[in-house]
Amino acid sequence: MKKLSNKAVFTCYESDMTKQVEALAIFKDDKCVEISLNYNDSESDLNNIYVAHVNDVVKNIDGAFLEYERGKIGYLSTKESKNPIFINNKNTTKICEGDNVLVQLIKEPIKTKNGVLTTNINLTGKYVVLVYGRSGVCISSKIKDNDFRECVKKAILPLCEDCISFIVRTDARNVDVSNIVAEATSLKQEFRVLHSVAMHRPGKTLIKKALNVNLSLLRDICDDTFEIISDNDELLSRCKEHLRDIVPVNQFRLYDDKLLPLYKLYSFDSILKNISDRKVWLKSGGYLVIDYTEAMTVIDVNTGKYDKGKASDATFYKINLEAAAEILKQIRLRNISGIIMCDFINMSTEKMCEDLVDYLKKNAINDRLKVTVLGMTRLKLVEITRKKVRDRVVARR
After folding, report:
1. What number of helices (H) and strands (E) belong to the chain?
2. Alpha-carbon distance 120 to 208, whole Å?
3. How much is the pLDDT for 306?
4. The domain at 278-386 falls in which architecture?
5. Pick from 382, 304, 291, 315: which is nearest to 344 by CA?
6. 6-43+212-268: what fold?
7. What's the first-to-final CA gap in the chain, in angstroms?
8. How far is CA 290 from the centre of its chain?
9. Banded model confidence at residue 244, pLDDT cuts 50, 70, 90
10. What integer pLDDT is reported at residue 152 of this predicted model?
11. What is the DSSP pairing of strand 279-281 with strand 122-124?
């Protein structure tokens, strides 16, 4: 087998850095670009599909509160709910107290805030997402080939119905159209089965458990250029089951070396320490300080060993470019999302400020999630946003 530069390393371990955890690290060219942790005591409900019971409808906020599991209440926007699937076979689209409705949890509860539900059920594949409640075909804006876009749209459109639409994901580019259509067909069949099962279930019932965060990441990021490595038979079997149509079977490898555990070979503790530290050092001697607040993440760039009184704009620009690269690396490794404000070292020339923002924009596209560099404010702060898919990575001791 040829040497593959992309690796997904999957293991269960416990150390001084973390309690028992199922950990997945993604390596590209021997550098860790993403890490995901799944703790046994914090099983996520995100993207689970339920038959939920409507406890209360609040007209003045166009919303309703539904119990999707016993003791778990979620908020549903009745204004945004298109063609909800009623389990009690109503002849109306109006959600009322006492109804049982098919929903999906799209945002987990945070502190005192309820989770958020939708009736627009999503079934996600590697290349395609089926969306109930809408119609037509949408294609990722990152797919630029117009001929390919037209070809895919024409092939998938016959699968659409009044309330079933498809989103073609970025990963579909450079993939044979027949494979994309096959996945869309499979998702449609899965939805029909799910719908049929739900019609015979009572309220507050789980209908479909979503993939856990690690398997979901594997599905989204891996392709036939990846080698999947694990020291755990069960984990490797789960990987094979979910990736069998994506990764060739000979690229799954069971690691077995009692003297050097897999987590030590790939320096998992060092990676976790790096993403847990408030201060991140740069090779130039400068450093970042990363702080999390309720509203946003704030990243401050400092000169470190450089004396501001002696250093030139050229030095500041060099440190800022290095810091920009590290910021993009850290927000992906730590899975920072939402609003990110970056306070770079002040530079006196407008051209250097513009070049710094251009550098961030050019390199932000390497992130698999949508990162938007909005520009520099009058206070010389760089505004960045990153799409939220899951919570920030936090190592628990």
Report:
1. 8, 21
2. 15
3. 65
4. 3-Layer(aba) Sandwich (3.40)
5. 382
6. Nucleotidyltransferase; domain 5 (3.30.420)
7. 39
8. 21
9. confident
10. 94
11. unpaired
